[in-house]
Specification:
single chain, five-stranded antiparallel beta sheet, 195 residues, 5 strands, 3 helices, signal, 57% helix, alpha+beta
Length: 195
């Protein structure tokens, strides 16, 4: 039964396709070529004659446009050449100025070297007259600093580590009374002499 149904379906499909194809060929409208629509060579000649002046005008306009463009290019080229010449002149002038400066530079450089090698005298820190005071020795803070309490206020004093003053401080013990002369150098207190 399935085979029969398959054959019937195939036949119907084939018949439908053939019917559709034949319907297109029967209903097709043929293109009509009538004598009225045919173009004769006589009708085309006036069109050619009418277009020739238009083409000539367009060619003339294009030629003028090209000539104008060429003139503008020439003017722009001349302007660029003038600007390039001006720039070249400016560069030559700067080079000449730099050359003059380079020729003068050795003497200026020598002056700079002379000033740089000449030692500048820096003002010495203000040193006040030495003060003689008596205080209590509290000990050595480091190889060049001692702590001494003067009028109940402890202070650090700088001492030459290789000098006589340091040798005397090395002999003292904490709490010993000591009389010394010191000066203020900026913020530092420097002991000059131990009595």
């Amino acid at each position: 039964m399935n085979k029969i149904t398959g054959f019937i379906g195939a036949a119907l499909l084939t018949g439908g396709v053939l019917a559709g194809c034949s319907a297109d060929s029967e209903n097709a409208v043929p293109e009509e070529n009538t004598a009225e629509e045919a173009v004769t060579p006589e009708e085309t000649e006036p069109v050619v004659e009418e277009t020739e002046p238009a083409v000539d005008d367009a060619a003339s306009d294009a030629s003028k446009t090209i000539e104008n463009a060429a003139e503008k290019v020439d003017e722009a080229t001349q302007d660029l050449q003038e600007n390039a010449n001006d720039a070249a002149d400016a560069v030559e002038q700067k080079v000449a100025e730099i050359g003059d400066a380079v020729e003068e530079a050795p003497s200026d450089a020598q002056e700079s070297v002379d000033t740089a090698t000449t030692p500048k005298e820096e003002p010495a820190p203000a040193v006040t007259e030495g003060k003689e005071v008596t205080g209590t020795f509290n000990g050595l803070a480091d190889p060049h600093t001692v702590e001494i309490e003067v009028d109940g206020v402890p202070a650090a004093y700088q001492v030459d580590p290789d000098g006589e003053a340091m040798a005397k401080f090395a002999e003292l013990t904490e709490g010993d009374s000591v009389t010394f002369v010191y000066v203020e150098k900026g913020e530092q207190l420097v002991i000059n002499e131990v009595m």
